[in-house]
Design a protein that fits this description.
It is built from 16 helices and 16 strands. By secondary structure, the protein is of the alpha/beta class. The radius of gyration is 23 Å and the shape is elongated. The two termini are 40 Å apart.
Length: 409
């Protein structure tokens, strides 16, 4: 079975953390017997003289590279950010069709495994029609939670959901959102993300802190996520300010980058928390286990989510989570033994952190429960879905061939 993974969200030589959850699913799928996975991760084209800060690195990516043993192709497509959003999928398809046709000519592609409904999923559907192969589209979060609110985008999302051979939702909450957009429930497969238990595993708190150069004494809270409004970092910092007087040695480390960085720095200064709140920017994924193990608790104060990997990764390290009831988070934190679910208010977040710091946690039990769902398990479930779509397409082609051409009128 030769599978084409199609998505913009994939690690590359400039950003090895980008879309790493899709990489994990793809690389474990490729490890299964009889499966070959090739990746097409398109990037926007910009003239070399026009390098905006956001897109500068993508302009310099090679057209082909190997990431973790996977063959990854980066065809270019033209894009004007924001202005061309309604045409995003079409230009992506046009930019990728030649490369995908070449890959199919080299060896036939049996199925397309696409990630993110728009624009990636729609472009993949068009590619699948050209190749006459089934297309499975995985919804990830923003593509269902946010994009349907855009008047010109919603019809294209609905069209993609209706034309996909199969759909994968990473959480029950996301599946509900897909159904609300008109997709048939029986077509949607619930396959949550996994975790790498070899990487995300408990180590001694002192050992982790020494490795990161953190204070050995005093409680630590860590929050991992992009510095964007929906992640709720401003509420987290204000909640931290409420409990800080009762915990003079408490430290908060925020790991992530984004457009709100300067605003959050200003907030930290206004609250007088410069010595206890640290905005450290984006950290390498392979260092996250040390951060989780060094902390008493991790926090995710999101307004919306699909299946946040940082929650499962924290739990796999044995670190309890304080998180909002957003998206798939309650499906992960199913028990009070794993963490504390809070409302999206500063007072609720503050109370949740306070409780997490004072409660005695069984970190080994947390790790065992969270680490049970591995990426190998996810890959096996995805393989079953893709294989079913391939066989259904073969049966359809066989029946059409057996029936012969239609009678002439």
């Amino acid at each position: 079975m030769r599978i084409l993974t199609f998505t913009e969200l994939f690690p590359n030589s400039f950003d090895p953390n980008y879309g790493i959850f899709i990489y994990q699913r793809s690389v474990h799928l490729a490890k299964r017997p009889g499966i070959e996975v090739i990746v097409v991760a398109p990037v926007p084209y910009f003239p070399r003289w026009w390098k905006t800060s956001r897109w500068r690195k993508s302009s310099d990516l090679p057209s082909e590279e190997r990431i973790g043993g996977l063959e990854v192709h980066h065809p270019r497509y033209f894009l004007l950010p924001k202005i061309w959003m309604p045409f995003h999928a079409l230009t992506m398809f046009l930019g990728c069709r030649k490369r995908v046709a070449e890959l199919n000519k080299r060896a036939s592609i049996d199925c397309i495994d696409a990630h993110f409904v728009y624009p990636d999923g729609l472009a993949a559907i068009l590619l699948g029609k050209a190749l006459r192969v089934p297309v499975c589209v995985s919804a990830r979060g923003t593509d269902i939670n946010v994009y349907p609110s855009f008047r010109l985008i919603q019809p294209m999302i609905r069209w993609t959901l209706s034309r996909a051979s199969a759909l994968i939702a990473v959480s029950a909450a996301l599946k509900k959102g897909i159904v609300a957009l008109g997709a048939k429930s029986e077509k949607i497969h619930l396959i949550p993300n996994g975790v790498d238990p070899e990487r995300f595993t408990p180590v001694g708190r002192e050992q982790a802190r020494r490795k990161l150069g953190l204070p050995l004494d005093g409680p630590i809270v860590v929050s991992v996520g992009a510095l964007i409004p929906s992640k709720g970092h401003s509420r987290l910092i204000r909640a931290f300010a409420q409990i800080a007087p009762q915990h003079p040695t408490l430290q908060l480390y925020v790991l992530g980058e984004g457009p709100l960085h300067s605003d959050l720095e200003t907030l930290v200064r206004q609250l007088g928390l410069q010595d206890s709140v640290h905005l450290l920017g984006k950290q390498p994924n392979n260092e996250l286990p040390q951060w989780f193990c060094a902390a008493e608790a991790s926090c995710l104060i999101s307004e919306r989510e699909g299946w946040p990997n940082v929650v499962t990764e924290s739990l796999a390290c044995g670190t309890p989570v304080v998180a909002t009831r957003a998206g798939g988070i309650p499906e992960i934190v199913q028990s009070s033994d794993l963490g504390i679910l809070v409302d999206n208010s500063i007072e609720s977040v503050a109370s949740g952190i306070e409780l997490a710091l004072t409660r005695k946690w069984d970190r080994r039990k947390i790790s065992r429960q969270a680490g049970a769902r591995t990426w190998d398990t996810v890959a096996a479930e995805v393989e079953a879905v893709l294989e079913a779509q391939i066989q259904a397409r073969k049966q359809l082609a066989s029946s059409e061939s057996a029936s012969g051409p239609p009678d002439e009128l």
